[in-house]
Each structure stands twice: as structure tokens, then as C-alpha cells.
Specification:
Fructose-1,6-Bisphosphatase, Chain A, domain 1; five-stranded mixed beta sheet; eight-stranded mixed beta sheet; about 270 residues; alpha+beta
Amino acid sequence: MKAQQNWSRLGAEIQPRMIEASHAAGKVLLKYFGKRFEVREKAQAGLVTNADLEAEAAVIKILRKARPDFGFLAEESGNTETRANANPDGRWIIDPLDGTTNFVHGFPMFCVSIAAEWQGRIVAGVIHHPVLNETYWAVRGKGAWIGKKRMSVSKTARLKDSLLTTGFSYRKRELQAEMTAFERLSGIARAIRRPGSAALDLAYTARGVFDGFWERRLSPWDLAAGWILVEEAGGKVTGLDGTPLDMNSGEILATNSKLHESILKTIHPESCPI
């Protein structure tokens, strides 16, 4: 209980600065969106633009002032500490532009994602959708919100009535396993969407738009903020094998909780026959 209170207190303390940072990054992204900008491919997969880099710098500038003792795990600049005496218990986990491919092609499904981690626990998360000017946020023990309106996951109880969402890896050799899961679930669910931003998929699951989301080969900055949003909205988040989520595994299943077991059994019928 005391740990929960401490997480809630810390999350509430830093949440306003996280929103401020997400809005600053959002302004940067809107400045570039629909215009010409530099694009290059990453060494592993995916794209990076000068908009990503400038947005990340805007986020770090604000958050460094909010908690100078926190380190950073950021998509573009990697895992860094703000200074030599940084507190090892705390760090910011940042994706300045989730949905870069969408952004590059002019598809308006992209966002800024920021999470605060303390002693291995996500205590606050913010996802900002700059095109729609929507800000999703959560504080551990204080619920999940869009602006000033509290969010909750959907009440859908049958998989055949569900709207699900997913994403596919850039690594072609892994597409077969992903398409197999997609085929199994699409044969039962009402529909499946693939918007191209894991953070927004999680925000929309927390909001009750989607009933469930699964994906492989993600990074901690794709998952962290959305993870707390879904849990604080009353949903369930695990790995794709049903075990507690490990952000470093890159695999996630997030649902309204009612459909969690059904989706697990459908993805893995050989180990969990229906």
C-alpha cells in the first residue's frame, strides 16, 4: 500500500510536465507534417526523420528540468543518464514520434509517447495525438484519462463481437507467425485494424474503441505509456504467452480483460485448445 501511494504521489507530481513535454513535441511534429523533411532508414528497420530528432530534443529539455535526477530511454538517443549522479531508480521512456512511417506518408495516425518509470514500475504515462489534439494520460492508482474525461476499457464479452488491432514487424522473416495469428483471430472477431502506431493502439484500447491489441517486436518506448493507460482504464496487459509483461521481450497482449483468455487461446491453440 505504501509503495502504491508513493507511485501515485510521484506520478501526480510529474504528470503535468509530461503533458507539457508531449505538447511541445506535438507542435514540432505538426510543423513538419505534410511538408518536405529529411528521411533516412535506421540500421535495424523503420524510418527516422529530423522531425523525430527535434521532437525528442523538445521533450528531453522539459523533462530534464522536471526531474534532473532521472535518466532517459529514448528511441533516437538511446539509453542515457542526465548526469553522473543520476538516480538509478528513475527514468523517462520516450518515443517522440510513434508511427513514423505514417507520418512520412501523410497518414495522420502518429503520436508522442512518454512514460515515467520508478524502481522498475511505470508510474505515469502520456500519449499525445497532435493532429486530433487529444492527450491520453494515466497516473498509477489514479485512473486513465483523455483530457479531463476518465476512460475505461470496453465491455465487449464475446470475441465475435470485438474490434481488435495489431501491428506487423518490419522483419519479413517473422511475418508468417504474425499472419497466422492474424488469420486465426480475423476468422472469429468482427474486424481487425492495423493503424501503424502501437502507442495509439494502446490508447484506443484504454478508451474502449478497440477491445484488444497484440503485437510482437516492439520496444519499451512503444509500450510503456500505453501499458499504464490500459491497466488504469481497467484492462489487462500481459505478454503474448499470458505471463506478466516484460517490456524488453517486445511482445504484448492488451485487452479489456474480458477477452484476454479467448485471444490467448486463439493465438496459441496448440498449447491452449479451446
